[in-house]
Amino acid sequence: MVSRTYTVAFEGVEARTVEVQCAVTPGLPAFSIVGLPDKAVSEARDRVRAALSALSIALPSKRLTINLSPADLPKEGSHFDLPIALALLAALGILANDAVEGITSLGELSLDGALVPVIGALPAALAAAEHGRSLICPQASGAEAAWVDAAQVIAPASLLHTIQHLTGQMPLPPAQAGEVRAETGGRDLRDVKGQERAKRALEIAAAGRHHMIMIGTPGSGKSMLAARMPSILPPLSAAEALETSMIHSLSGLIEEGGISRRRPFREPHHTASMAAIVGGGRSAKPGEISLAHNGVLFMDEFPEFPRAVLETLRQPIETGEVVVSRANAHVRYPCRFLLIAAANPCKCGYLFDPARACARVPICGEDYLGRISGPLMDRFDIRLDVPPVSLGELDLPASGASSADVARNVARARAVQSARFRDQDSLSLNADAEGEMLEAIAAPDAEGRDFLLKAAERFGLTARGYHRILRVARTIADLDESLDVRKPHIAEAVSFRVGASGG
């Protein structure tokens, strides 16, 4: 007789259902696992045997065979321990076959039978709901998995509690969805002295998800400004939180408290590898650009990143997804993020500082910023020169709008865009609009069009640059609560486009 239960194997953010079969047959005593398991799955034999021994359950002197079907799908990770144990207990008659056939489970077993949290509980809950099954996962993973309302999630603390639940001796209540509350009193835009134009650029970038690059001398406040971007962004919607948390779940970044509605803010170091930024490695894990999905990717010292890494960003910026190909994996991850880059104007950083003039002007700046290719620079909607703050400005009291005030403006502009793109599945913000849709929503008035054509001719704008100005102008009009895109909106958008490093 063969017992069956179910678990999942991960391919990118997708959890594929795996049938765990167990057969107890006469023969020399053996315990084998087949179905393309990796080392962690093969070691489950010893963990399961020790956990059952801790419960005073002895394995029979027969041949025990575990098959993970489909057999051609690679199985990786320690989360196969619990389903293997449940299939084995059903084959031994300790659990009813009907009880384990209706569930999907995952979890790593300690030698004493306790369940250790594993990655991927959220995608596993979605897979269980799709097939009409309930999910059993470790107690520490229950808060995230319970976000999937369509599946009942049971989160026992140990294998003993799991057995008691499935046999009806001590039924467990369904797990409750957990939410990590954002900390209050964080970084505020009012902490930044001066830099009013930069604050305005941050507001526009946040409202329409427009990519931005800041170029300025060391200490001018570029990193300080970027660090305050999360404080003006609206919280994730329920759908966005679920989508983002699936990626974080696969990377083990979700805390025991549950899912956070705070938008991710990722800031990789410029020494990070291609696999760390874009994704990859032996098992094609998501990279920083996917971990920043629906949030912010801040890349400080932008020209210092390897050229190959920078050029790889071009396609994900346009399409909002990245395909990671490896010999044993070919997976697709979403990566629709807001890119904020910061750079010094030259290697020494003081190209435009008259007090510390660079001896290699202008070659120093051309060589340094030349590491950013023209096609990549063309993908930045907002280019901002960040001048140094004078000592006199530092002594002035805090001024300008607070993060809370700017966040309300951003939320209002995003609500306008949500209503505008309500019937468009692939569009949500102005940065996504293109083609006929862009012409329909961002066509400027006569004065604005004349101004834009003159600017395009004067600064040699590309077609991409022309369209990006229209997108930014549409966002500025939304912040201004204007139905039409007018000349002042176009003029401000052009000023941000032809800022740092020209058009």
What is the 3D form?
A: elongated
How far is the N terminus from the C terminus? Answer: 72 Å
Strand content: 15-25%
Number of helices: 22
The helical percent reads 25-40%
Could you describe the largest sheet, including whether it forms a barrel?
5 strands, parallel
What is the CA-based Rg, rounded?
Answer: 27 Å
What structural class should be given to the helix and strand makeup?
alpha/beta
How would you state the average pLDDT, rounded?
90
Would you count the extended β strands for me?
A: 20
Uncertain residue ranges: none
Strand arrangement within the widest β-sheet reads 13-16-19-11-20
Short structural description:
This protein is an alpha/beta fold and 503 residues long.
Structure, explained:
- The chain is built from 22 helices and 20 strands.
- The protein has a five-stranded parallel sheet with strand order 13-16-19-11-20.
- With 503 residues, it is an alpha/beta fold.
- Helix 2 packs across helix 3.
- The chain is elongated.
- A hairpin with a 2-residue loop joins strand 17 and strand 18.
